[in-house]
Specification:
With 279 residues, chain A is α+β, with helices and mostly antiparallel strands. Chain A folds into two domains: 20-137, Ubiquitin-like (UB roll) (Roll), CATH 3.10.20; 145-157 and 172-272, Alpha-helical ferredoxin (Fumarate Reductase Iron-sulfur Protein, Chain B, domain 2, Orthogonal Bundle), CATH 1.10.1060.10. Chain A has helices spanning 2-13, 57-70, 101-104, 145-152, 174-184, 191-195, 202-213, 222-235, 246-250, 258-272, and strands spanning 25-33, 42-51, 93-94, 97-98, 123-127, 136-138, 141-142. In chain A, strand 6 and strand 7 form a beta hairpin. In chain A, helix 4 (145-152) runs antiparallel to helix 8 (222-235) and helix 7 packs across helix 10 (258-272). In chain A, 46% of the residues are buried. By secondary structure, chain B is mainly alpha-helical. Chain B has one domain (22-106, 117-231). In chain B, helix 1 (22-47) packs parallel to helix 8 (202-231). Chain B is globular and about 55 Å long. The termini of chain B are far apart. Classes of the chains: A alpha+beta (279), B mainly alpha (236). Bound molecules: protoporphyrin IX containing FE, iron/sulfur cluster and FE2/S2 (inorganic) cluster (FES). Residues 26, 29-30, 33-34, 36-37, 40, 92-93, 96, 123, 126-127, 130-131, 133-134, 137, 185-186, 188-189, 192-193, 196 of chain B line the site of protoporphyrin IX containing FE.
Chain lengths: 279, 236
């Protein structure tokens, strides 16, 4: 092990590969370590060397974990799956912004954030999403099943099963289908909750309500959907939305604030029409 | 080493659910806020009577107290306005405190490092700014309505109290700071109320925000004209 590491240092640090040498980075990481849900947790400082700018943020954490495992330490637990920005599993608070949005320069997931956005010698603070509704499982991994329960409470439509219907039998105006598809790009990562000063899940719920409520297939349950999903998000212990806009700025899919207005509009209409949340 | 990777249902600390819908609280906040804003528009325009002179200003104050007379007893209209305003203020503060507490429960332990990406200064100061504006309103009523906190004291005319107060740079400074805070409160409040009542969309977003900014600047500018004119001796 020592030999390979020295070899690596030799290769990147001397004439063998002069082009690589100035680019690779040494970073100080301050990471939230928490043994389990009951542990208090604390920030722990680590050093990683030889980080290539082409690595993703999660690959950088893989390098740290390999080092920790070789040293006999407990690796840092973090959520991830597709590593291509589509599954919504990953999510870290990086230097105080969700998915490192303050560093990335554009909408991104943590897995699509690249180390070229950082400089040699940087100190990076890494924390889990913090919300009562997202209890920490271990280290940087949180339980986001509250979002699943919001979906269960109303994020569905009733459709007859059987052979696929003729695609053109129900016409959808282009404007509505575009807006519905924009809302449907939400991957349920929870960055909106993490970034919100109120820890509100409003942007997520609004994306789901808009996605189905804009389409003809979503009309039969439209009123009960919105009242039940809002009631469920309150029951889960999320905060209330005060339209600050941190959610939309942090969202990897750029879900816009207009969805929140649409949710409120639907909710007020549904309540006026007599819809009440089921308890 | 034992590694806990799953939260058992029993381990989940059941969060104390909000008793009232968070959106309901916001609607109360928006509607009561709009009532207060309508009052502020009338109040600001009324204040400009100072520039028409002592008689006109004091006459205006007298008129508010006698609207509808003799069909209704003295002060009827003013009393109704005061009851509506008080109800709006109580509703507004109730909703603000309820949402504040809900946010605190939703994230009891904050981040070690947290940075804002999009949050405006106005939206960041809604809560403490609102508290300061609320305290200011109490002082303001003791000062100019009741006169007990005014250099001229009670039993004087509204015009004299106003001139005596704003001749003091310290009192003028208090008003200026409170009004600037109120302006920021309204800047975010108008945008937020539009969202809460479901009246915004991508196309309107810019217009709503621009309107909120221009409205707040004009309203607060109108209010500020009076103390500055007294301070610089244009009204005396
Ligand atoms: C103690 C006094 C006050 C407190 C604690 C307070 C607090 C708040 C809070 C927390 C909000 C919600 C902020 C947000 O959306 O992020 C708000 C909104 C608002 N406030 Fe106040 N406020 C106070 C006084 C006032 C006054 C004096 C006015 C007007 C004269 C006013 C007008 C508004 C309006 C129009 C809104 C927007 C409603 C909405 O958010 O949907 N507030 N206030
Ligand atoms: S709205 Fe955006 S930030 Fe929130 S869960 Fe969906 S994709 Fe993530
Ligand atoms: S790991 Fe799937 S979105 Fe990041």
């Amino acid at each position: 092990m020592t030999a390979t590491r020295e070899g690596a240092t030799f290769a990147s640090g001397t004439a063998t590969d002069p082009a690589m040498a100035p680019h690779n980075m040494t970073l100080t990481l301050r990471i939230w370590r928490q043994r389990g849900p009951a542990d208090k947790g604390r920030m722990v400082t680590y050093q990683v060397e030889d980080i290539s700018p082409d690595m993703s943020f999660l690959e950088m954490l893989d390098v740290l974990n390999e080092k920790l495992i070789l040293a006999g330490d407990d690796p840092v637990v973090f959520d991830h799956d597709c590593r291509e920005g589509i599954c919504g599993s990953c999510g870290l608070m990086i230097n105080g912004t969700a998915h490192g949005r303050g560093t990335s320069g554009g909408p991104t997931t943590t897995c699509q954030l690249h180390m070229r956005k950082f400089k040699d010698g940087d100190t990076i603070d890494i924390e889990p999403w913090r919300a009562t509704a997202f209890p920490v499982i271990k280290d940087l991994s949180v339980d986001r099943s509250a979002l699943d329960r919001i979906i269960q409470s109303g994020g569905y439509i009733s459709a007859p099963t059987g052979t696929a219907p003729e695609a053109h039998s129900i016409l959808v105006p282009k404007k509505d289908s575009d807006a519905a598809f924009d809302a449907a790009t939400c991957i349920g990562c929870g960055a909106c909750v993490a970034a919100c000063p109120n820890a509100s899940s409003m942007l997520f719920t609004a994306a789901k309500v808009s996605h189905l409520g804009l389409l003809p297939q979503g009309q039969p349950e439209r009123n009960e959907r919105v009242v039940n999903m809002v009631a469920q998000q309150d029951r889960e212990g999320f905060g209330g939305c005060t339209n600050i806009g941190e959610c939309s700025a942090a969202c990897p899919k750029g879900i816009s604030m207009e969805n929140i207005s649409r949710l409120n509009h639907d909710l007020l209409g549904a309540l006026r029409a007599g819809a009440r949340p089921k308890s | 080493m034992a590694v806990v990777t799953v939260t058992q249902p029993g381990q989940r600390r059941a969060p104390k659910a909000a008793k009232t819908s968070s959106v309901f609280k916001k609607v109360v906040m928006a509607v009561s806020g709009i009532i207060l804003v309508l009052y502020l528009i009338a109040h600001m325009i009324g204040n400009l009577k100072v520039f028409a002179g002592r008689e006109s200003f004091n006459g205006y104050s007298h008129w508010i107290r006698t609207i509808g007379e003799p069909a209704v007893p003295a002060q009827t209209t003013l009393t109704i306005i005061r009851i509506v305003l008080l109800a709006a203020v109580i509703a507004h503060i109730w909703a603000a405190i309820a949402l504040w507490r809900q946010a605190k429960r939703a994230r009891p332990n904050g981040y070690v490092t947290k940075k804002a990406v999009a949050q405006s200064y106005a939206s960041r100061t809604m809560r403490w700014g609102g508290v300061i504006v609320g305290l200011f309103v109490v002082y303001h009523i003791l000062d100019l309505t009741m006169g007990v906190a005014n250099p001229e004291g009670p039993g004087t005319t509204p015009y004299d109290r106003l001139v005596a107060g704003f001749s003091n740079p310290l009192i003028t400074a208090v008003y200026v700071i409170a009004l600037i805070l109120l302006g920021m409160h309204l800047r975010h409040g108008i945008w937020s109320a539009t969202q809460t009542l479901g009246q915004s969309n991508k196309r309107r977003e810019r217009t709503v925000n621009l309107f909120a900014l221009v409205f707040s600047v004009v309203l607060i500018g109108g209010f500020l004209l009076v103390p500055f004119s007294v301070l610089f001796g244009l009204v005396g």
